[in-house]
Amino acid sequence: MQHDKNCEISLYRQSVALVYQDHIPTSNIEFSQDVSNDILHQLNNVQHELSPEIIQNLSKKLHASKFTLLQEDFPEEHCWLIYSQNLTKLSVRGLNTLWFIDYNFSAEGKRIPVGILALLERLLNPNSMKILTELEIDGYQTYFLGEWIQILASRLPSLRSLALPYCRLSNHDFLVLCSRFQNLKQLDISSTEIVSLSGIWELVNLEILMACDLELTSQEDIEDVFDLKNLRVLDISGDRKYDLKNVEHFCKCKKVLPNLQMLDLSRNLATPQMICDILTSHPTLTCVGLVGLQNDIKFDHNRVFSLPATLLDFSTLESLPNPPVILNTVTFPNSINTITHYAKNCFKNAKKLAKILEEVANNHEENLKTFTMEHFQNFWDVIFNIEAHHLHMPFFEIQRVRCLLYIYRSQKNFGECKSTILYYLRFLTCVRWQIEDIQIDEIYKMQVLTWTLLNELEWLDESTVDAIAYRAMELLMVVDTDNVLFEKLVTNLAKAMNHPSEKVKEQLPKNVRVVIKLKSYLNAKHEIEEEIECTYLIISHFSPFLPSHGIPGWTRACINGILNVMEYRNRIGLPTDVALEQLALLKDLSLSETAVFLEKERLEMYM
């Protein structure tokens, strides 16, 4: 039996490798459910479309029960392989990147319209629809057409777990959901824009309710939750919003959930007394989330200040009989315990983890700098193995890289962790983030932090340097020259080009849009230090090879940039030798000839 298992694992590895090359083993062996699920998951990593023959052959060998669609621009042809399996669990993320979802309806705002039935029929065969027990749809930047909840209920009769984060739900949709899915045990309606949980009493079997980032307006909006006598987990925490009063509304109901074990109240406005009252009335609680909890404190002139959780007194909570575990970031050990909990239990919610990491990076930088190798390994195991890129949440990676940067700067010998870190950082540099207006600055910040860290490492190879430079050039095409991020991108591209990389030197002159932006920047008038530094970097790092490619107007732009640098250095009393040397190299002149040339240029400019 062991031999057969080893054989199956060996064939699994062969299959994964050969799928990338559009081949499949000819063996008649069929794969077990677990191995089939792993092979199906690899579809998210395939960079080309599989042939119909391969899809047909592979579909007969697999017996998959679950699939999570993560890949942006997932090929329509691969849907058949998903459709061929009898799935009980399906998760769809990155819905707004699936190019084959096009129904010729006008988009509403920045959301893309999607027909729920067409989506289901592409991925689920009739038997899968009958037996599907778990469905997750990330509705980021999309909305569903018509009575889509009714369609879900009629087509998926066995559903026990439904997650609809970021899907736009109307109050009507929610009431339909509650009346049609009475067998649900788990429900996630986080960030769905509904403002009332009225009607949820009909979900009598519900055990887990994730209602994160819902702005409930009164106690009536949450009162029906207390009819859910089987509820074990409740999340009414905040996320994007920082002034939620969900805790206050919860307290005003003065009712009890008899089986509640986990309650997340993070990022709400609340007083210590409210928290004490909730914990006292719910002795069954074993864990309570109080990350970023805020407290309204009124001063003179009716000014309201929000104080972070570090100023709340948790000692009174700990003195309660059988106190639950309090998840918070008051101390560094507490922060690590909190991260560990959320990483294990809320791994799908990258935003929640990002907020915790942000507090760790902001409040405990010094602790991160004192990490030993053992600390780092534990931190890595908890945090750096969480894949968040497919959730379209680059701000999670920002905080993750910030923490890594603090650790690296104080502990530069990573030993055997080196290759793992390098792999992770190269992934961040190369990944094709979706650049949407709402996240564009976050994406740039994440990339800048990544490059900053990469450029401090001593063990970069040429392919990594190339990846950094190529991604910088891609982003430079999007950023306006008057954006401070443009200067940061130029700085990091210049650092990447400090390494001898002929591929980058060949690629940059061909990227006309980037070259035009660099010229435009040199020709503009700059007067502050950061702008002058960026000007000098462009001249010193790109001029040695760009003129040889015959870029029109490049030399003229460089001369303008040098004049700008010299004027700035003269104004603040610094020598101008470095600028003269750059001009000498540019025009192939001696320093004395350069001085004469420069005076002539200056006179012509003022005339």
Automatic annotation (TrEMBL):
InterPro entries per the UniProt record, alphabetical: LRR_dom_sf, LRR_Zer-1, Zyg-11_UBL_adapter
Pfam family, one: LRR_Zer-1
Coiled coil (residue ranges): 347-374
Keyword Ligase: no
A single Gene Ontology CC term: Cul2-RING ubiquitin ligase complex
UniProt superkingdom: Eukaryota
Keywords of this entry: Coiled coil
Limits of the Zer-1-like leucine-rich repeats region domain: 178-272
Name of the protein: Zer-1-like leucine-rich repeats region domain-containing protein
Encoding gene, per UniProt annotation: Cnig_chr_II.g4388
